[in-house]
Amino acid sequence: MASKTNPFTFLQQVRTEVAKVTWPTRRETVISTIMVFIMVAFAATFLFVADQAIGYGVGAIMSAGR
């Protein structure tokens, strides 16, 4: 079982660990954000087209029985 540390020691350890983090630059953050929006747009378009195609196919199958 882990030993308990006091809050002051914990905050010191957190500060030490946060100092080790390599933070992205503003440019890297902007580029990553733009890429996320582009991929979301592609995924939304693909899913919309797939949904329409499946709906058309199901509709064609259902109306074939009439």
Automatic annotation (TrEMBL):
It is found in: Cell membrane; Membrane. GO terms for molecular function: protein transmembrane transporter activity. GO terms for cellular component: plasma membrane. One of its GO terms (biological process) is protein targeting. Its main location: membrane. Signal peptide: none annotated. Gene3D superfamilies: Preprotein translocase secy subunit. InterPro entries: SecE_bac, SecE_sf, Translocase_SecE/Sec61-g. Keywords: Cell membrane, Membrane, Protein transport, Translocation, Transmembrane, Transmembrane helix, Transport. This is Protein translocase subunit SecE.
